[in-house]
Amino acid sequence: MKNKMVLGWGTLASFFFLPPADASADAGQAGVSHPEKPNIIFILADDMGYADLSCYGSRYIETPNIDKLATSGTRFTQCYAGSGISSPSRCALMTGRNTGNTTIRDNFCKAGGIEGKKGKATIRRMHLLPNDTTIATVLSAAGYRTCLVNKWHLDGFNPEATPLNRGFDEFYGWLISTAYSNDPYYYPYWRFENEELVNIQANADGKHGIHNTDLSTRNAIDFIRRNRENPFFLYLAYDAPHEPYHIDDTHWYDAREWSMNTKRYASLVTHMDQAIGRLLDELERLHLRENTLIIFASDNGGAVQAPLQQLGCNGVFRGRKGQLYEGGIRVPFIVNWRGKVPVQTLDNLIYFPDVMPTLARLAGASGKLPSRLNGIDITPLFFGEQMDTGHRLLYWEFPGKQRAARYGDWKAVTVTNGPLELYNIKDDITESNDLAEKYPEKVAEFERAMKEMHVPSPNWPLPGE
Question: What GO MF terms are annotated (predicted)?
Fold first, then answer.
């Protein structure tokens, strides 16, 4: 990739600054000071819409604990997930690369990978490779104890591509490659504890003894207790509020004149919020709160099965999970570190590939980062410093199906693999006014830059590659 100076819209060379694939994550960050290695907890919701939190505008769903993280920390309003669906979004998060450059670019691949079943259909899935460096690999090299709780979704059908084989020291959850390891959904009888597949007796014989959210929170708290004397990285990836919306306790919303589907969806979010409150209470009890950085996000926007209209899950944004419009990829992103991260709301453009170089910087492990990253270190923003994150190309693709890119106020997108649509997101946040015909030169620049961002993949071959 080439460096392009940002001078305006006039010439091909002046439109984009594309970060070189091997750009140093530490460039320009000398002013940031964080004297001790913090514990790091990254909490990820599943299919939760941008506006499903009270602190992001929900008028219906109660999320007091997450709201408190936002009101006592930093809330980003223009954060983008790694993709519009689970596996590629999580791959971008874990590897620091966008979906034009990652190993996993869609939930199902077109070639290679490993063949398996989803329901009755035969599909192919790709998995993280042994040479894919993850956040856990980098932080482990810096002396962190690392743990993934619950959802991995980067193993495809390969039982050797588990979190334990991709940098994590501990794992408690489920794998795609062992189909029944999260069965039944939300009240599992089966679950991995590291390499061992165990039974959850509270859920034996179809009983609903313990919900997955509570089980995951218990696993997370146990990990923290065991590692209170060591720097640790906890990746807590809840299932909530992914469909099917299974939860017995809906008391928060029983008085509402909603369908049961809507009550259960909202309850899954509020129940997760309460679980996060318990985790925060445990950090207080262990006197770890002052040296623990907490990040909360969602892996993509709300899904078609969610009560999108009734609860306004994706806010004013167009689209939903599975699409590269704003509703599919714009997500909440909250950063909290008591006494270190200031109270602020930021509109900087950030996305999931930025997480890896940022956490590496905080852990003193930037020298352990691999090359060819697309993300940048955004730690200055965490500590109240200014930083220009908008004059670079953010890029997404579902190869051969959808593409999108954001640069400054402008966004180019197609969800049909047809001609690019063009929107000025600052003026048209709902992506309602396609300006492609008015500004064909901008579309041409986006087209050229997006092609440069795309690295051919043997698992998603395009014509001519």
Answer: arylsulfatase activity; metal ion binding
